[in-house]
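S1.2 Input.
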Amino acid sequence: MNTDSFALRHIGPRRSDLPEMLKTVGVESIDQLMFETVPDDILMKKSLDLDVAMTEQEYLEHITEMAEKNKVFKTYIGLGYYPTNIPPVIQRNVLENPGWYTAYTPYQAEIAQGRLEALLNFQTMVSDLTGMELANASLLDESTAAAEAMSLLLAVRSREQKKKNAVKFFVSEEILPQTLSVLQTRAIPIGVEIVVGNHKEFDFSEDFYGVMLQYPGRTGNVHSFKDFIKQANNSDIKVAVAADILSLVKLESPGHFGADVVVGTTQRFGIPLGYGGPHAAYFATREEFKRHIPGRIIGVTKDLDGNRALRMALQTREQHIKRDRATSNICTAQVLLAVMAGMYAVYNGPEGLQDIADKVHNTTATLANALEELGLYQMNETYFDTIAIKTDATKIKYIAEAKNINFYYPDDETVSIAINETTTLKDINKIIAVFAEAINKQPIKVSEIIKGNAIPSEAARKTKFLTSEVFNSYHSETELMRYIKRLERKDLSLNHSMIPLGSCTMKLNAAAEMLPLSDPQWGNIHPFVPVEQAEGYQQVLKKLEDQLTEITGFAATSLQPNSGAQGEYAGLMVIRAYHESRGESNRNICLIPSSAHGTNPASAVMAGMKVVVTKASDNGNIDVDDLREKAEKHKDNLAALMVTYPSTHGVYESAIKEITGIIHEYGGQVYMDGANMNAQVGLTNPGNIGADVCHLNLHKTFSIPHGGGGPGVGPICVAKQLVPFLPTNPIIKVGGDKGISAISAAPFGSSLVCLISYAYIRMLGVSGLKRSTQFAILNANYIKERLKGHYETLYSGERNRAAHEMIIDCRPFKENGIEVTDIAKRLIDYGFHSPTVSFPVAGTLMIEPTESESKEELDRFCDAMISIKMEIDSVSKENTNNVLKNAPHTLKMLTSDSWDFPYSRQQAAYPLEYVAENKFWPTVRRVDEAYGDRNLICTCEPIESYMEEA
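S1.3 Output.
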């Protein structure tokens, strides 16, 4: 056993397991299985050109060396990003805890009550601070949240506005530059005309349907928008406000003034800068817009016993319902970061947040006062944490950077300084010294923080916030630690058992990959610092881009998209720009197979394309004849094909090269969805199959943990002709020479977690990456054969092989009165998270074991599934009081004095022997989804309601 091999630790099955697994599958070797599974014409003819695999120890030494190349200056740039104090109790118990970071999206509510409660706290925090009725469970970043607001307000225009084609959207000139860039990207394909200007000069013309304001403004000014919003409301123009969440502790909420949508980031609530992410954005709006809100909403419902339970409200998101009529492709959240931000509010409570906000404002006022005493002109009459000094910015920049200090320089005569919760009196004196040196004066020594009064009275907060009990109970470390643990115990994560979700690739998130995320040399870098200060990041991210480019067989990579759906959109926008550069802006038809994920058609529409659906054949593959017919029919306007490979049905379609050839023949480009890349790495690649662009889910194939539903990262890799059009950023130079405007806020997206994928590739190396793919395929086929005779596999390849995942058909069990949901819930009693339910085919389970699961774990899962099949065989439609319909079974049920079920407690709780060794108890019975949608409650009860009940 080679203890230095990371691949040995990452891949589950042992060498001694192989003979039995291969025998079960019916092959002599893994190579034979690959031959029977992957079409020969797409196999790579040579190995990947990557570095030799590192051991874990070598990697940790290497990444420490890289970290030391980053220069962590005192940074006061602001622009939506601030150094923070991360409470160690949250860092240790959430960020560094696999019980939190390896959990999946809470689709199975009964085994996700912990993170659902944490997200409900987050939503309540956001609703309270913004003054809005409804908040979602987070979005990707402030800029993309603002773009979602623009789209939502377009969708909810009045009938009169739609009739008059009101498509103008006013954006305050004080908007963050990266937000403006993302708004411009999103506006063009959906026909919105952005007008940037001074909100004080806005004429409230009926040509406008909406407005976006920044609160406080980009360089710190605090405006009272009360009268502006009132006039907008009277003019039937809806208002979105991008608000700094910490400032809302001191400033009156936009909802109080009548705003329709409030967006922003919660990064200031104890989340590391991480060179741009990941951070949890927030999105809050009116309840009347609940059917249009992007992303996920956590709601309160009840379980079978009528007890309070939580679940994802409106769970089937609009892009899956509406597909090509959707207004958003968002299907995710930043759960791990939202949990951290929510816990920050729980830990500090309203009084603690007030203290932090007061400290920030008072420190800012102290600095402003001292600089004015030096004779400098401070431009902002009102501010919360940011001041603007009129001076020689070039000279200040030179002196400041020599003293390891970063400011923001909007122009040659302005220096903007954004204070944060980490800023001390010592820091203030260092800042004063920079300006004193620049104007040849003796610095003023500040010895105490004065009380600030730069918030206008009409904008000062008067409404209460965070009155719920949860925000007023856990202010000692002991109590918060226990609260976090109590929630963690309610959730099933990868540290308990396999999560066999098809299309989601829940593999090992190795500790060695995760450790650098806690290093302040990586965490404390602002995304807009001069690139020479981020040399470690620059080298690692460039290397990761090169690695992904090599793995996909393409020419270049952009790391900017910070989710899979963002990657889809970015890829299609790059294709759109390519066609326009050739004078073919008429190309707007996107062919999408009928089995595609719901985000595919939604992304195409957002990119300004018209969706044409192609048929599937009886065996689940793309109907090539139908595809050819539609490609020929639309040949003059064909823009792209969106295809997933292996297919969404878990099969390597042998006609894939013919399919991509057809699209190219008729002038289109091929977009490959990278959801199933775990079945390609080292064996084939998108370049080989004839694709032109793909996105990669780094949170699937490349080992970034799902974090309970996020973070995700979705970079795009492109062929040579598309390289010039890769997305740019308005502050840091990235992207192509003819690049589209920004896709997300930060130039490199969620840079901090990209370290994980970099580590994954460096430690596996060429051989380990290929073996990982091979074992993912072996494990899937092993399950397929073990379940043979009990469950029918719906689709398989020409030689009856699955790819890395498989779909089993549960529809025949309707004869026994059993639905696929019953199987999913019964699996909880066996200690497993269910596979993917009813996607892409209703009434089925899609199973993906990944390469990280051992033979023992695969066998436990198969034993559970076979045992459940025996249970199905023993029930009938008439017998609804059975072990499947009543699943999952809680500890409360098992220990109750009464037992009104026709089966034993033993069968309910311990159906197989292994379960007793590692029993997971759900804390609620099966939840009532319909009740929760009919009675939408998405925030915590205020503390007064508890007092009334008492």
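S1.4 Remarks. The mean pLDDT is 95.
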